[in-house]
Structure formats: C-alpha cells, structure tokens
C-alpha cells in the first residue's frame, strides 16, 4: 500500500493562482533579496549576541539607566531574539515566494493490506522461523524462553525500587496506655475543660524531648480532638466509652492516602480531607460518608488521670494512615 501523490489535474477544482515570482524574474529577484536581507538581520543578531559576551559592559548605552549587569543581559537577550526571529521570517518568506508552488493531492487507501500481501507476510515469517532453525534447536528455544521470561521480571524490580515498603511503620505510633495528650504547638497537657463544645484541636503524645521529635513521628502521631455534646454521638457502647465528656480523638492521617485531615465543619460535624474530599462523620466514629477513603479514621481511646489531664487509655487499636496495602476496611 502506498500513497500516490500527483499534481492536480482535476478540472472540478478552481484554477491554481500562481505567484508573481513564478512568472516574473524581476519579482523573483526581489523576493530573493528580501530573503537575504532577513537572513542578514538574523546574522547581525547573532553578532550582537556574541559581542555581548566579549565587549566591556560599560560600552552599552543603557548602562547609565539600567546598570551594567542588566544592560549586558539585554544585549544577550536582544541578540538571541533577533537572530531566531529573523531566521524564521527569512525561511517563511523563502518558502512562500520562491520554493515550488504546487498543489498536490494524496490518495489514501484502505488500511487493510491486500490479501496477497498478507499471505506473503505469513510465508515470509514462516520462512524466517524455518531459516533461524528455532524449531530444530531446542537449546536455543529454551534459553530464549528463559531470557524472555526473566526479562518480564524487570518491571517488578523497578516497581520495588519506587521506595521502601512501609513495613510496620504505621502500625505503631508513640501512643501508649497512659500517654498524656499535649497541645501542638506548646506541649502543654490538656484538661477537658480547655476545650469548648464545638472546638477542635490538634494534639501529640507527650514526649521526654519535645524539641527533638522526629518529623516522621509527628506525622503519624498527630491526633484531632473534637468536643461535642455527649448526646450528639451516635456510637456503640464501646466507642462511646473511648470518649471523655464529649471529647473524641481521631488519628489525623487520612485513611485514603495519608493527607492531613484538616477541615472540620462544626455545623455538620464532618471532618474533611482536602486531598480527595473524603468526608468522615465525627458523631459516628469517623465513618466515611463520602470520598475514596475505605475505612474510618482510627479512634484513640482516651480518658483522664487523677488530676483531670487527658491521657490515652490504650494505643491505637488499628494502624493509622492509608489502608491500600491490606488493612481491614470496615
Ligand atoms: S488522602 Fe484523604 S481523601 Fe485522599
């Protein structure tokens, strides 16, 4: 199959209008000169560009106005712009006025090859296989099969190379039984009375060395405290017992892909993840009511110590963060 290109001879088409330079030698000569001038201006631009590297900066007339560095940059930029613009203009003018001006028609054929071509192809492939001797040479056949099979493993290795697997990193946080909840920032212990109804606060587990917390730990330990009226909860008895005087605590890491769930709508009592709009209902233990997250935000079981400071009663009962590598969704 091939495309045939022929000069138009179709009488149904309007007559081709020839350019002046096609039949007037004077016009052709003029066009030639115009193209040469455009290329000449381009050359001057290149000369300006090169000169800007070597001539002293204070020669530029703009130096008093814009400073030597800017004037130098201007020389370089202007030189390059003139060089490229006029070489392009020259080429276009050349093509439009002097290069062959011929309308052509291209005939397109069906994409399917002729039957005879297809048969020839099959015969050629068979001949090739026969000539290679792969049918008779079983050692080559097997080793080639092994090589191709092994090469298919490369993509798996490349995928593995995307980064370390998360391992147990997100299965363990710094929250332990009895860990105090502290403000972030500030590292102050919190009493229930510090939080008004409707308020939300980010807290971290108390640390012996708060100045040197690892970023990684802060990211996975962050917890959101939200205070509602106790009667607003719609929780089973166990989850209700994990709250304290209307205060409920959730991991701040989205269970979809790990963004920080940072938006709280006080009216609806919804937590929103800004990344892909997963929405969690605080009154129902952060149940997912919209978006791609596959499971609720893990809830932290909280209580208070003898002095009324909020503490974790247990660690998180499930891993925090994304659940795409095989967490139990609920
Ligand atoms: S990371 Fe939160 S919705 Fe995707």
UniProtKB/TrEMBL annotation:
Gene3D superfamilies assigned to the protein according to its UniProt record, in alphabetical order: Rieske [2Fe-2S] iron-sulphur domain
Keywords: 2Fe-2S, Cell membrane, Disulfide bond, Electron transport, Iron, Iron-sulfur, Membrane, Metal-binding, Oxidoreductase, Respiratory chain, Transmembrane, Transmembrane helix, Transport
Principal location listed in the UniProt entry: membrane
GO MF term (any one): oxidoreductase activity, acting on paired donors, with incorporation or reduction of molecular oxygen
Compartment list: Cell membrane
Lipid bilayer topology: Multi-pass membrane protein
Domain of life: Bacteria
InterPro entries registered for this protein in UniProt: QcrA_N (IPR045603), Rieske_2Fe-2S (IPR017941), Rieske_2Fe-2S_sf (IPR036922), Rieske_Fe-S_prot (IPR014349), Rieske_Fe-S_prot_C (IPR005805)
Pfam families xrefs: QcrA_N, Rieske
GO cellular component: plasma membrane
Cofactors (names): [2Fe-2S] cluster
Transmembrane domains' residue ranges: 35-55, 75-95
Stretches assigned to the Rieske domain: 220-311
Family membership noted in the UniProt record: Belongs to the Rieske iron-sulfur protein family.
Function summary: Iron-sulfur subunit of the cytochrome bc1 complex, an essential component of the respiratory electron transport chain required for ATP synthesis. The bc1 complex catalyzes the oxidation of menaquinol and the reduction of cytochrome c in the respiratory chain. The bc1 complex operates through a Q-cycle mechanism that couples electron transfer to generation of the proton gradient that drives ATP synthesis.
Protein name in the entry: Cytochrome bc1 complex Rieske iron-sulfur subunit
Organism from which the protein derives: Actinobacteria bacterium BACL15 MAG-120619-bin91
């Amino acid at each position: 199959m091939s495309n045939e290109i022929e000069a138009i001879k179709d009488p149904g088409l309007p007559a081709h209008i020839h350019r002046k330079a096609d039949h007037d030698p004077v016009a052709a000569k003029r066009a030639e000169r115009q193209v040469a001038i455009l290329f000449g201006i381009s050359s001057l631009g290149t000369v300006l560009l090169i000169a800007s590297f070597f001539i002293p900066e204070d020669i530029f007339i703009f130096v008093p106005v814009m400073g030597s560095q800017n004037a130098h940059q201007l020389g370089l930029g202007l030189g390059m712009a003139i060089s490229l613009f006029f070489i392009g203009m020259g080429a276009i003018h050349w093509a439009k006025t002097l290069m062959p001006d011929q309308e052509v028609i291209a005939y397109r054929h069906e994409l399917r090859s002729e039957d005879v071509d297809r048969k020839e192809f099959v015969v050629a492939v068979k001949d090739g296989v026969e000539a290679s001797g792969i049918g008779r040479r079983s050692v080559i056949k097997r080793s080639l099969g092994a090589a191709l099979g092994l090469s298919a493993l490369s993509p798996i290795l490349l995928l593995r190379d995307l980064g370390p697997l998360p391992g147990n990193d997100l299965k363990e946080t710094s929250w332990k039984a009895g860990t105090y909840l502290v403000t972030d920032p500030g590292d102050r212990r919190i009493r229930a009375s510090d939080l008004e109804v409707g308020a939300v606060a980010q807290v971290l587990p108390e640390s012996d060395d708060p100045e040197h917390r690892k970023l990684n730990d802060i990211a996975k330990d962050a917890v959101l405290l939200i205070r509602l009226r106790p009667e607003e909860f719609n929780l089973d008895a166990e989850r209700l017992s994990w709250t304290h005087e209307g205060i409920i605590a959730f991991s701040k890491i989205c269970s979809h892909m790990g963004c920080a769930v940072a938006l709280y709508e006080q009216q609806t009592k919804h937590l929103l993840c800004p990344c892909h709009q997963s929405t969690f209902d605080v009154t129902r233990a952060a149940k997912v009511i919209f978006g791609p997250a596959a499971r609720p935000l893990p809830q932290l079981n909280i209580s208070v110590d003898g002095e009324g400071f909020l503490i974790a009663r247990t660690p998180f009962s499930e891993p925090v963060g994304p659940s795409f590598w095989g967490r139990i969704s609920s």
